[in-house]
């Protein structure tokens, strides 16, 4: 059984930083694509960042230059370092994973989802 468990969310002031982690069990991140989505109240889930098994990262325009995705295959853990946080980054953040080399833009492309971790940024 595959489980993705996020941690590291919380409340910070604008300009602050948080590091999200997502530990996987029953699945190895190096099998395919992994990433992060977020969903703010009243909005659809939106792609934040993805990383392929080869380490190629992609970011939404809204987070480029502020967020960094990485993965530690030895620990089977995915990370999202978030710097210079803004109030508009407030959302529930979900880690995702899918076997295969392709990283989908759509949420429907991801087989496995974590339960989510809340990030709240105050101005």
Overview of the molecule:
This protein starts with a strand and ends with a strand. A hairpin with a 5-residue loop joins strand 5 and strand 6 (57-59). The strands form 2 sheets. Strands 2, 4, 5, 6, 9, 10 and 11 form a 7-stranded mixed β-sheet that branches. The chain is globular and about 40 Å long. The model has no long low-confidence stretch (mean pLDDT 96). It is 0% helix and 51% strand. With 123 residues, the protein is mostly beta strands. The protein is built from no helices and 11 strands.
List low-confidence stretches: none
Characterize the largest beta sheet: strand count, sense, and whether it forms a barrel.
7 strands, mixed
The string of secondary-structure elements, in order, is: EEEEEEEEEEE
Kindly state the number of beta strands: 11
Q: Which term fits the overall shape?
A: globular
Secondary-structure topology with pairs:
Blueprint: E1 3-7, E2 10-13, E3 18-25, E4 32-39, E5 46-51, E6 57-59, E7 67-72, E8 77-82, E9 91-99, E10 112-113, E11 117-122
Parallel strand pairs: 2-11
Antiparallel strand pairs: 1-3, 3-8, 4-5, 4-9, 5-6, 7-8, 9-10, 9-11
Label this structure with key terms:
51% strand; 123 residues
Give the gist of this structure.
The protein is mainly β and 123 residues long.
